[in-house]
Amino acid sequence: MNKTIFLTFIFLIVISIAGFSLEYKPVEGYIESLIKIPSGWNDDENYQELSTEMQLAVNYVSDRAKLYGAVYFTIDDLIGTGIMSDKLMIKPGEVYLSLYLNKLDITIGHQVISWGTADGLNPTNNINPKDLSDLTHIAASDTKDLIMPVNAVRFNFYPADFLNFEGVFIPLFTPPGMPDFSSYLPPELSGLSDNINFCYPDSAPASFESGMKANFTLPGIDFSLSYLYAWDDIPDIKVNILQQDIGGGMMFGTPASLEFTFNRVHIIGADFAWPLFDIDFRGEAAYFITEDTTGDDVFIKNPYLYYVLGAGYTFFDDLNINLQFSQKIITNYKKISDYDYNIDPMNPASWNQDDSYYEEAYTTQFFPLASYQKGALMSTIMLIIRQNFLDDLLETSFIGMYNFPEDYNDADPDRKLGDFMLKPALKYKFTDAFDIELGANLFFSMKEDTNDDLIRDSYTTFGMIDDKDSFFLKLKYSY
């Protein structure tokens, strides 16, 4: 836990009680217990989970100011062995102070800043780092477990009723949560699980992030234009090599370590919300200008355009259907098979090359997968359905996401069929404060091999986690 943030949280509570003449709202929050049981379909029963999380939050509000602070107490792995105190984690949530001036709002502190209008897929929402340590959260429409608060200063200026300028300044780099990459290494790099290094930006003023957004509220349509100078959440990859003598004075480079580096990115974005004939049309688009502006550097992601278009409609007042389609268009994309490298130690063409040759050769085998640039055109469709019954006491929901096949290597003879996830759930609200939810997280990936058999495609997004299928039971009490 960050001690500075925690002490700031305590300090803000104390000065609020002592000096603010604000309308007091009692301590609020929730207690949530989660039971997750593996499906057993993939013979993996080692990740069952029983955890409890408690949120405590204070919220002081007046006409001129707001002070909010939250802290989370989480106990994980309750069914595992070990000391209970080692399973307790305390972490701050949002902790911020907002001041409401004449036509200017200023918010300072540990906060979540959401940009964009779409649900689930948000190309323009890039201010907060993402917690990717648990990849099963990447397809959730509820991003509570995915978005990490960040220390920032934010202002909103309202020069006219239809116009709002929003500015954001983040003084220091905050690293995202990273998954266990050693679990996803391809065979060529499988021996590097203990030699993975992360290169983070220095914790200095030069690591700042900043952005500006103009929001327009016009009759019948809302839209915004934005710019963000930030750090890319998904690091770039480089394979470092070691030259070895393979006999007869011949040298051959083999992987020695993996290096993950966070690089700068400029993000130019736009979004809109347009209700038309009771259909809620929404869209976002962002162009990511990476440090490899021409798309020729194998160690840095290529620039790309990412957009999403969605439409939502409510039938009979209690059935909501939301459909979204998104694409990433990669500039100057190259497949693995497009690179003219040889790393077969039995082929003389691969002998006695310099270090850079081997570094580029091995990196190209892994980069399209880890950088999430696996095709010149990457397409995704997402469907969200919610149906309420019994005067809104019972809610059924379904989230489905399908990634179209990505042809990143012509040398692979298998026919890729894409990957998808399904999340059906049923929630019942016993009271306004207590509800129970039952559901499942199911992940699939498919390709057809040369024998026409369906097999797993472990290099796809959901293929990497399709042994994490699970059923869950969630109990939540809010106060």
Globular, elongated, flat, extended or rod-shaped: what is the shape? globular
| CATH class value of the largest domain | Mainly Beta
Q: What order do the SSEs take from the amino end to the carboxyl end, as H and E?
A: HEEEEEEEEEEEEEEEEHEEEEEE
Please tell me the CATH architecture of the largest domain by its name.
Beta Barrel
Under CATH, the topology of the largest domain can be stated as Porin
The largest sheet is: 18 strands, antiparallel, barrel
Give the helix level as a range of percent.
under 10%
- Nearest-integer average pLDDT: 87
Q: Which consecutive residue ranges, at least 5 long each, have pLDDT under 50?
A: 15-23
User: What is Rg?
Assistant: 25 Å
Distance between the termini: 25 Å
Domain unit count? 2
Q: Count of helical segments?
A: 2
Which class do the helix and strand fractions yield?
A: mainly beta
How many β strands by DSSP? 22
Share of residues in strands: over 45%
Structural write-up:
- With 479 residues, the chain is mainly beta.
- It folds into 2 domains: 1-33 and 51-99, no CATH class; 180-208 and 216-478, Porin (Beta Barrel), CATH 2.40.160.
- 7% of the residues lie in helices and 51% in strands.
- The chain has an 18-stranded antiparallel barrel. The protein has a 3-stranded mixed beta sheet with strand order 8-12-11.
- β2 (49-61) and β3 (65-75) form a beta hairpin.
- Mean pLDDT is 87; it is low at 15-23.
